[in-house]
Amino acid sequence: MPKITTILLDCDNTLVLSEELAFEGCADLINEIAASKSLPLAQPFTGPTLLSEFVGQNFRGMMTSLSQRYGFALPEDELAGYVRREEDVVISKLEEKLVACPGVDAVLPRLRDAGYRLAVVSSSALRRVKASIDKVGQAGYFGGDAYSAATSLPVPTSKPDPAVYLFAMEKMGVEAGECVAVEDSKSGTLSGTRAGIKVVGYVGPYEEGQKGEMEKTLREAGAVVVMRDWSEFEECLAKIERGEV
């Protein structure tokens, strides 16, 4: 089997604890849009309710889902304006409060020193991804290899579409068989798996009572192994390299 050369990492709640902060900022904007379009929401969204419903999707994906659910038109220029506003709101929150996922900052230098190439592959806008990894001091591990389904692709999309993984591999000149991806969500795991990449699922950021269910969800979505803490990653990687999973 091919040697693993490249580790492709989701950003939100995989490298940095951003999802809760981002959805908090996002909920206010979506409620404002819903009111302006007279959408019959059962109740306004909060950060936690938005997170539980749309984890792993970017804002564009959320708005597209809502437009389909409630049957309202969402022209591209209007959507692009909302996307820009959402980026500004979320980046402001991240720059104020963002921290790294526990344990990841101990693992990244060891992977780099062992010769693996590291990249960020996210659904979130590239400006937000860069603000996130800059804020927590991780940017130096990636050498410019950061790719966004929302803003790097010729046609914007969101995970679970595999397009962002296929794009990242093309730009980096690597094949799926030499890559391992790390994902915390069903949509992200599906995205990596559909691109032909072996995915390590990560359930660390979930509440203790949710971890078992999320592990099941990620395995069903295609994760070949699941970790609860970043301290387990190198053994997960070794299992993949040995061909055990």
From TrEMBL:
Membrane-spanning parts: none
CDD domains listed in its UniProt record: HAD_BPGM-like (cd07505)
One Pfam short name: Hydrolase
Keyword Transmembrane: no
Reported cofactor(s): Mg(2+)
UniProt keyword Magnesium present: yes
Gene Ontology MF terms: metal ion binding; phosphatase activity
Name under which the protein is recorded: Haloacid dehalogenase-like hydrolase
Keywords, sorted A to Z: Carbohydrate metabolism, Hydrolase, Magnesium, Metal-binding
